[in-house]
Amino acid sequence: MDINLFVNITAKAWALPILASLHEGVPGRQAALLTATGATRTAFSQSLNHLMALRLLERNPGHGHPLRPECRLTPIGQEAASLAHEIQGLAQDEDRDLLRRAWTLPVLTSLHQPRFFNDLRRTLPQITDRALSKSLQSMEERQWVFRQVLPSTRPPRPLYSSINLGKRISEITAPQVLALQDGP
């Protein structure tokens, strides 16, 4: 999986919980997935349609009602669901709201090694300065990211590192998402 697909998956709040639930064996029906994820119907429907547009899910032929189809994982969806399951398994209930934010996971993936702000921007070309700043700030408040200002550089520049739960998530996602970019 590449970073652009990962960014697209995490763009919808309930995409990862849906994938993780399907990986755990929850049936691909709307009612079962709604119960498992705790999403609202509208947000769930948008995330489900988003996953189908990304070709991570497909309709299960011959199953489900035409208005509420049953879905199943595609081969690339199975890879994404496995990753989603690992991430969801690390997080406590109070951490899942931050995981559902659009840029949290891509930023943590990019922080598999300490980076300056501009280096993060280059890793995630679609992110705006404001979105990156807000994401780093919220993760710093949760103590997932550590910000260290280096006085030796002129002007002083902050260096960001993933720590605690952020580090564990980064260690899981970076090898699977950045393998294509950092490879030979």
Automatic annotation (TrEMBL):
Pfam families cross-referenced by the UniProt entry: HxlR
Sorted UniProt keywords: DNA-binding, Transcription, Transcription regulation
Residue ranges constituting the HTH hxlR-type domain according to the UniProt record: 90-184
InterPro entries: HTH_HxlR, WH-like_DNA-bd_sf, WH_DNA-bd_sf
Protein name, per record: Transcriptional regulator, HxlR family
